[in-house]
Task: inverse folding
């Protein structure tokens, strides 16, 4: 399965999540490309069996500035048939914990992508065994979901 992970990370927390996702995908036999969202050419997203899009949440639930161009560029794109999953890091001290994850998921759905229902939201960085396992389970569930969507079933 050809997968893409696009993310933005200021302190490295969201990048850490992206790396955990990447390792699970690679160990499952997936082909993986990973890139920062501020350099992604959105037109290429349709070339993947599944895309993982991640961001940290800034301020009062806002997208980080590094994701704004990516977000706007999605407006000109039709993502029908694209499977997507969203993830990110945040600080639960803020009332809109990981809101950027939901904002990205909503935009992908508006553009026609099939978006995996659960979103992966991690407090800061995946450092505890529980947080790493949460990332692992999320990624494995996405793989299974994509295989069902493709009519392959899961082995």
Result:
């Amino acid at each position: 399965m050809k997968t893409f992970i696009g993310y933005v990370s200021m302190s490295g927390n969201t990048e850490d999540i992206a790396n955990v996702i990447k390792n699970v995908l690679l160990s499952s036999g997936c082909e993986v490309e990973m890139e920062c969202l501020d350099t992604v050419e959105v037109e290429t997203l349709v070339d993947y069996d599944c895309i993982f899009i991640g961001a940290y949440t800034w301020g009062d639930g806002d997208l980080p500035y590094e994701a704004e161009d990516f977000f706007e560029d999605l407006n000109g794109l039709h993502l029908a048939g694209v499977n997507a999953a969203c993830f990110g890091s945040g600080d639960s001290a803020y009332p809109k914990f990981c809101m950027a994850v939901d904002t990205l998921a909503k935009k992908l759905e508006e553009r026609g992508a099939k978006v995996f229902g659960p979103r992966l939201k991690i407090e800061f960085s995946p450092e505890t065994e529980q947080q790493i396992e949460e990332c692992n389970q999320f990624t494995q569930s996405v793989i299974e979901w994509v295989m069902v969507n493709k009519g392959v079933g899961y082995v």
About this structure: The CA atoms of residues 59 and 94 lie 8 Å apart. The chain has a mean pLDDT of 96. Helices lie at 13-27, 65-73, 99-110, 129-149.
